[in-house]
Design brief:
The chain has 418 residues and is mostly beta strands. Helix content is 2%, strand content 40%. It contains one helix and 33 strands. It has a five-stranded mixed beta sheet with strand order 1-29-28-27-26, with no helix packed on it. Strands 2, 30, 31, 32 and 33 form a five-stranded antiparallel beta sheet that branches. Strands 11-19-16-13-12 form a five-stranded mixed beta sheet, with no helix packed on it. A hairpin with an 8-residue loop joins strand 24 (274-278) and strand 25 (287-289). The longest helix has 7 residues, at 326-332. It is globular and about 55 Å long. The relative contact order is 0.18.
Length: 418
């Protein structure tokens, strides 16, 4: 059943409001890396968070020269230094995914059975890809999963992802669920064609991935066909996978460009619509949410893992066509974060605190940033006591086409602002 959600155009910390809706206090913090290894400049990379070693993992992406990246980069969030692991194994020293950008990614955390970053598909040298890889945090190697079942067509830039890094499924059936819909594939003439949202695919991964033993399985199922609420295909949308219970999730998408067949959507066709679907419904249907945040392409929609706000997702960054408006000023200079409450059915537009020690004090608008959310603080001395939750942002491409290498934290504390 579909629902039309309301929009509250409320600027917390900007204007007063009589509407009772709580959000966490938010702050942008610039992470200044150290060491002799320079930060890689990449857009549309895949990212994961290795909580055991407190590391940000970056794979693939697009370089400043427009080339596809095939390397793995690690940022130690204690020392704030970058390294590049060899990702080799004694059995196959050259095993790693082919270079790509625009892949879908998520986490696979099953106690000692599997602990890593899942990467699906993306845009490769010869077009769209459909392979599935896992980067094992313990051992720092890549494993190419053999998939079976109702395998979706190759695609990049899809709405897709899996469980967050804080979820351990070992108490259930030892399966991790990864969701996929939309995106774009490669046509016969080499152009890129958006894929419809009328098929929802579910990948379930089981077994073990360890240095000395690997028997992992990966099975695709065409889970749902929500054709009753047909959405126009698009590129450069923000996509969300919010885990609700074991094996179920809410999928969401925001903005992008409808019907664009170019490799990169242009900002002139940016949309501002939002749609959400629950996989736990007996007849899943895409539900529309009223327009509220500014239109943009290349934004990121990520669930917050703050334990006080578990039904919320943050919409950050992206590039807006409204360059001379108040909306654009709040996004360009003040780091606007748009908070979607799925239980209330509302958008809240928030102006976070910015970093007074950074220039610029808030991240510049960009498309294709790699973003990972955590239930605890990732950087600094707050620790894991539930005082704050962090979302880490890496790289992307700004409105002038510059590929970036900066790292930011969006910190949500466990207080409430109404």
């Amino acid at each position: 059943m579909g629902f039309l959600y309301r929009c509250l155009s409320v600027f917390v910390l900007f204007t007063a409001s009589s509407i009772a809706q709580s959000v966490p206090p938010l702050q942008w913090i610039r992470v200044k890396t150290t060491g002799t290894t320079a930060s890689p400049a990449l857009a549309y990379a895949a990212a994961g968070y290795d909580a055991l070693n407190n590391q940000l993992v970056i794979f693939g992406g697009e370089t400043a020269g427009g080339l596809l990246e095939g390397n793995t980069h690690l940022l130690n969030l204690d020392s704030l230094t970058w390294t590049s692991p060899s990702t080799s194994t004694p059995q196959n020293p050259a095993l790693k995914p082919p270079a790509r950008s625009h892949s879908s990614y998520g986490h696979d955390i099953i106690a000692s059975y599997r602990n890593g970053l899942i990467v699906y598909g993306g845009k490769g040298q010869q077009g769209a890809l459909s392979d599935v890889w896992e980067y094992a945090f313990n051992g720092q190697f890549w494993y190419n999963l053999t998939v079976r079942g109702d395998i979706p067509s190759p695609r990049f830039g899809a709405v897709g992802g899996g469980d967050p890094p804080s979820v351990d499924n070992s108490a259930s059936d030892l399966l991790t669920t990864f969701w996929l819909t939309g995106g774009a594939n490669t046509a016969n003439d080499g152009s890129y064609q958006p894929v419809e949202y009328d098929n929802i695919y579910r990948l379930q991964i089981g077994g073990t991935i360890a240095q000395n033993y690997k028997d992992a399985t990966a099975t695709w199922t065409r889970f749902a066909n929500p054709s009753a609420s047909r959405l126009n295909p698009r590129l450069a949308q923000a996509g969300m996978v919010m885990r609700t219970t074991e094996g179920s999730a809410k999928l969401g998408l925001y903005g992008g460009c409808e019907g664009d067949s170019a490799p990169h959507a242009t900002v002139s066709c940016a949309q501002q619509d939002t749609h959400v679907l629950s996989t736990s419904d007996s007849n899943p249907v895409w539900s529309s949410i009223s327009k509220c945040p500014s239109a943009r392409i290349g934004a990121v929609l990520v669930p917050t893992l703050n334990h006080l706000f578990g039904d919320m997702a943050f919409l950050v960054l992206g590039i807006s066509p409204n360059s001379n408006t108040t909306d654009a000023d709040r996004l360009n200079k003040r780091g606007e974060v748009d908070v979607l409450s799925l239980s209330q059915g509302t958008w809240i537009r928030v102006l976070p605190s910015c970093d007074p020690l950074s220039d610029p004090p808030c991240p510049v608008p960009r498309e294709g940033a790699a973003v990972v959310s955590s239930s605890t603080s990732m950087v600094g001395s707050l620790g894991g006591g539930g005082v704050a939750s962090d979302m880490i942002v890496f790289g992307g491409k700004d409105a002038n086409g510059n590929v970036l290498n900066d790292v930011w934290i969006l910190r949500a504390t466990t207080a409430q602002i109404t």
